[in-house]
């Protein structure tokens, strides 16, 4: 019997809208493409998520690495609070689960500094029964240890949990631990998957 629903955050409950964010800062398509490939989807960003680097270090590192884009990179990091936005369905979804008696948790790869800036803005955050931020525990999904930390901290059993994440690697890691996992591809599909599980 399921008792807990665990959610990823970025691109599951919120939009990690780095491309429109950069366009809103006035970056052209070529710059957006370059920074997407060479700043966001890099090992350095994973180190941010793992708590091994901080935002100031990130800005300094990428400015030094790509001096021709120093102004754009500085602008990116100075306005980083605006890079995410909450999906309209997120709060009603969380409240619906809570009203049905489920406990709801977050398990997210996220820099701690940015979580402090972003998460308090999300209407669903105050409704959570608990959460794990990757940077705070020094490891990132799909490392199975981060799932175990969540289970242990909140005294949950894998067979009583449903995990929702957009990343297929994270989904597979959860399944290996005996957690029922749903890859998030959109709200309507998630609702169908919940219906199959009688949630």
Question: Could you explain how this protein is built, in words?
Answer:
- The chain is built from 11 helices and 7 strands.
- A 5-stranded parallel sheet has the order 5-4-1-6-7.
- The model has no long low-confidence stretch (mean pLDDT 97).
- Helix 1 crosses helix 2 (29-40).
- It has helices at residues 18-24, 29-40, 43-49, 55-65, 70-78, 90-99, 112-118, 134-137, 144-153, 168-176, 187-196, and strands at 4-7, 14-16, 84-86, 103-108, 130-133, 161-165, 180-183.
The coarse silhouette is globular
Mean of residue pLDDT values: 97
Strand content: 5-15%
Number of H/I helices? 11
Taking all Cα atoms into account, the compactness measure Rg is 18 Å
> What is the total tally of β strands?
7
Uncertain stretches = none
SSE string, helices as H and strands as E:
EEHHHHHEHEHEHHEHEH
Helix residue percentage: 40-55%
**Order of strands across the main sheet:** 5-4-1-6-7
Distance between the termini: 10 Å
The major beta sheet can be summarized as: 5 strands, parallel
Counting helices, strands and paired strands, the structural category is: alpha/beta
């Amino acid at each position: 019997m399921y008792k807990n629903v665990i959610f990823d955050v970025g691109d599951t409950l919120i939009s990690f809208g780095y491309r429109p964010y950069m366009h809103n800062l006035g970056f052209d398509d070529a710059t957006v493409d370059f920074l997407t490939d060479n700043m966001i989807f890099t090992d350095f960003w994973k180190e941010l998520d793992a708590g091994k680097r901080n935002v100031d270090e990130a800005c300094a590192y990428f400015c030094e690495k790509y001096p021709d884009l120093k102004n754009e990179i500085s602008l990116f990091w100075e306005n980083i609070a605006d890079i995410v936005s909450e999906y309209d369905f997120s709060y009603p979804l969380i409240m619906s689960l809570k009203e049905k008696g489920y406990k709801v948790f977050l398990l997210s790869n996220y820099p701690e500094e940015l979580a402090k800036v972003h998460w308090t803005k999300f209407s669903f955050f105050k409704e959570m029964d608990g959460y794990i931020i990757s940077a705070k525990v020094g490891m990132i999904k799909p490392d199975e240890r981060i799932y175990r930390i969540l289970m242990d901290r909140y005294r949950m059993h894998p067979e009583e949990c449903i995990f929702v994440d957009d990343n297929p690697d994270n989904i597979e890691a959860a399944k290996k631990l005996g957690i029922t996992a749903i890859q998030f591809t959109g709200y309507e599909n998630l609702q169908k998957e919940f219906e199959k599980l009688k949630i």
